[in-house]
Amino acid sequence: MAQDTTVPKPNFEYWLDKAIEWGQATTLESQKDTCLHLLQLQEFLYQLYEIIKHLGSSVAFQQFPLIGQLLGRLCWNPFVIGYDESQKTLMWCLCCLYSSEPQNAVELKANSWIRSLLCHLLCSAKWESNETETSTFLSALGYTSADYYCHLVKNMVISLVTELRESQFNGLNIQESTSASRVNTVSFFCVPLITLSDLTPLLETLLLYHGGSSKEVLSSEFLEAVNEAFLKKKISLPESAVFSLWLRHLPSLEKATLYLLDQLFSIDLKSLEEVACIIKDSLLPQAASHPAIFRIINEIFKNALMETDGTSEVMTIIQVFTQLFLQAHQNEYKQHKFPLKAYFPYHHQPLVRGLIRRPFELPTTYWSQHLKHISDMVKALVEDTNISSLIGLFEIWYLVACFGEWLDIAAEQLLKAAVEPGAVLWLLAFYYCPKNENQQRTQTMVEAEAVYNHLMMLFSCADLSLKDLEAAVHRVMGIEQCCNQHLTAHLLTNFLLFSPGGHKLAQECINHITETTDTSKEVYNLLTRTAYRINHSGKGNQRTVKLLNELLQKFTLKV
């Protein structure tokens, strides 16, 4: 049976006449008459809402040409909007009249008018008005203005949340397009109220809402406003709501990632613990457990690295992020985990599996063998004739660089363990000099082997002087190629940290290197990474830990 979509004209005209007669209820006579009709008016408004919610804005205006005048007058009557659910019903009626895709100037003007009315209804400043009539009315109900509207907002939010959840979980597809339009409108009119704490349950419900429509049902203004408020810590949301926000709105995810990078660069951070804390607090590593989010964040990081010419600060941030992502991924319940290929779909999967193994997951005696396995796979990929483009080479390098923990361990293992130096040195040479144009990487290997052999001759000496290290120091200072210089500085710094006789020379030697070469940032970041890893593993030699702390306290980072 078809639903009757008309409100009897005399009834509509009756209430319009009443609204005109009452005005803003500024006289005692109009206040009494309004109170006498509140129950019947609320029933009428609800009946009107039940009809227009299925019509669409343009049809509703055609069928009820004076509806704007009626609703507009009622919205300014404090006795009407203060009664039971009348304010909520007025809001729903206004939402039904709002055009999510205005086609002409008339609809744009109507939207603007509706927004102003809703802002009037929901603005907390208006609720705390000291107008005599409003205060008198609320006092008669036994409430202060602030208390009354606080309860009203909570009740409205509960009502909206219940309706949205029921419409989603009941699987009702009746008037699906209208329902999507209503949800879009509700989300839009939440924008001015995003930071109200009482609105949080509604924000969460909207963000987790997925109707039957293939198109996004929430307004972009709403998604942007929620993201902005979350990033600036003006609101607190459950992780599931934040993840849903970033999954359904790419610009918000991009902004969150860039905001994190800006935040890390704008703060004077003293340790990687602080960096890790800020990154984890952003929820991006946890959100990256979803492959789509991970790949987008990864692309943004990749672009940031290229735009900054591969600075060690950006690379360190990426490496810490990757470690936190792996922690979050490992903490996921097994049934919710995505396969590794979903995160790295275009990479050599055995290499991905090798790199993704955290060092603490393996016995230290197995590290050298594992590093050789990684190095052999990388070398085979790089020397593959199919990897001819610089893009392919960069992708391999970037994958290895993201898991920089293994690179730092590689440099340590060269000095501390029985390791096949050729494979491990090649891995480090590839990291510092991925391109082999004009035999650059080959030359880097020659330089690295010379430094390594010299340092190994001195490694067991308990009584070292700076003169003993002059050859290695001069090699660092005399190398023109930046990649060779940084690799040599890396090996020399590890020698000073882990050799029996290097501790007493560390401060003087490192100061000398960083003051006379462009390796200051590289050495500083190496020290912070080493301190971070040792602190988290709990396996560091006490003397090495003490030296690291002293170096980091005295180290002056030259920008």
From TrEMBL:
It holds the Pfam family Fanconi_C. One of its GO terms (biological process) is interstrand cross-link repair. GO terms for cellular component: Fanconi anaemia nuclear complex. It comes from the Eukaryota. InterPro entries: FANCC. Coiled coil: none annotated. This is FANCC protein. The gene is Fancc.
